[in-house]
């Protein structure tokens, strides 16, 4: 009995230790980004406390060298971003937008806003509450594929002419022009300087992004002199030039010719692999294979493959 009590005591201690480390890890993750810039003792109101009619908007440029450690290259997903708060408070924002973009630019300049960025956070109305001197985390509604290079961050919201309150975010001195600032909705910024906001982010591995390259059905076509016998089965194979995780494939069949309509195959085997064995094919049929990247939810299809059936034509 005493031995049993000792075992229970040790188990309880072990669970307590595990719980402690789990909780500690959760708190640390919430407080400190995986990659973050320097901070100062001063903070800037833009763009979360602009005090301008129409709202405030900024674009920031961050170089890999700006962060606490160099981000990995080769493709990762930014899932959460952070701003380091310089004040404490809460505020209800309207039309809060955050966009990210990979870029080869090494400096910003006052003038037309940079375009082609990806919207990663969009709220028509949102309430933020924060304390001073902490990393405020914003979970992205759309994770962003980051290539590890220079990064543009755009933040904007709709304010009013008597806008008060709002989050102040610390900034740091960049070695390049790294901040554009202005009014939401204007086509151009009002100015630019070297003081981007203190910023951080978390990464998870991502092996696919954007639109996948098109696969190719490599099975030779059946010639008119030797079609597939009606009612038989055959195996179709495709090559996939896309590499890495986050990819899925799906074979489809057309009921109306090479232009569709298309539907996922429902018979045979291997419908979600590179090699698909058909069910019994009774008449000439078109097939194709699609490749989908889960990170972008985009799909690319192979060219239609015409599977000829019938009795062999005498030579």
Order of strands, main sheet, comes to 6-5-8-3-10-11
Oligomer: single chain
Poorly predicted regions are 1-30
Structure classification: mainly beta
Helices and strands, in N-to-C order?
Answer: HEEEEEEEEEEEEEEEEEEEE
Strand content: 35-45%
The 3D shape can be described as elongated
Largest β sheet strand count, sense and barrel closure? 6 strands, antiparallel
Q: How many DSSP-defined strands?
A: 20
Roughly how many Å apart are the termini? 90 Å
Radius of gyration: 28 Å
Overall description:
The protein has 315 residues and is mainly beta. The chain is built from 1 helix and 20 strands. The protein has one helix at 2-31; strands spanning 35-36, 43-44, 56-62, 76-84, 89-103, 118-130, 135-146, 150-158, 169-170, 179-183, 191-193, 199-205, 216-217, 235-239, 247-254, 262-264, 275-277, 285-293, 298-301, 305-307. The strands form 5 sheets. A 6-stranded antiparallel sheet has the order 6-5-8-3-10-11, with no helix packed on it. The longest helix is centred in the N-terminal third of the chain and has 30 residues, at 2-31. The chain is elongated and about 85 Å long. It starts with a helix and ends in an 8-residue tail after the last strand. The model is unreliable at 1-30 (pLDDT under 50).
Task: Provide a quick synopsis of the model.
The chain is mostly beta strands and 315 residues long.
Describe the protein's topology.
Elements: H1 2-31, E1 35-36, E2 43-44, E3 56-62, E4 76-84, E5 89-103, E6 118-130, E7 135-146, E8 150-158, E9 169-170, E10 179-183, E11 191-193, E12 199-205, E13 216-217, E14 235-239, E15 247-254, E16 262-264, E17 275-277, E18 285-293, E19 298-301, E20 305-307
